[in-house]
Amino acid sequence: MVGLRWWNHIDEDGKSHWVFESRKASPQENKTVSEAESRIFWLGLIACPVLWVIFAFSALFSFRVKWLAVVIMGVVLQGANLYGYIRCKVGSRKNFTSMATSYLGKQFLRQNTGEDQTS
């Protein structure tokens, strides 16, 4: 619908590889994917995990423990779907964890070496 897809590929060695793809934008494809369709897709993709979280709090506070397992699975599956499409949209060049670790490491080094201090 919006030119994004992701899946898991297992190679001959048995190693799992996640593949995140996004379609290149071209003038012809802009006609097939309208802005309204894209907004509906992303709104639905973001709204579903939020709804599952609301259901989780509802099940937790109303002491319906047997429904809590179902709701937790809904949160996990919808969250994974959202994460996959965000990785496709942002790009699969870097892992988010490595980006955060790299940023925090640089900030730590700057703070300890005194680069941010001005005379």
Residue stretches low in confidence (pLDDT < 50, at least 5 long) are none
Give the CA-CA distance, first to last residue. 55 Å
> Strand arrangement, largest sheet?
1-2
Element order, helices and strands?
Answer: EEHHHH
Return the structural class.
Answer: mainly alpha
**Cα Rg:** 20 Å
Task: Name the overall outline.
Answer: extended
| Main beta-sheet annotation | 2 strands, antiparallel
Number of strands: 2
Mean pLDDT value: 78
Number of helices: 4
- What is the multimeric organization of the chains shown? single chain
Beta-strand portion reads 5-15%
Helix content: 55-70%
Main location: membrane
Keywords: Membrane, Transmembrane, Transmembrane helix
Transmembrane segments: 40-61, 67-86
Pfam families: DUF846 (PF05832)
Structure description:
With 119 residues, this protein is mainly α. The protein has helices at 27-32, 35-61, 65-90, 96-113; strands spanning 4-10, 16-22. Strands 1-2 form a two-stranded antiparallel sheet. Helix 2 (35-61) runs antiparallel to helix 3. The longest helix has 27 residues, at 35-61. The protein is extended. The chain crosses the membrane at residues 40-61, 67-86. Belongs to the TVP23 family. It is found in: Membrane. One of its GO terms (cellular component) is membrane.
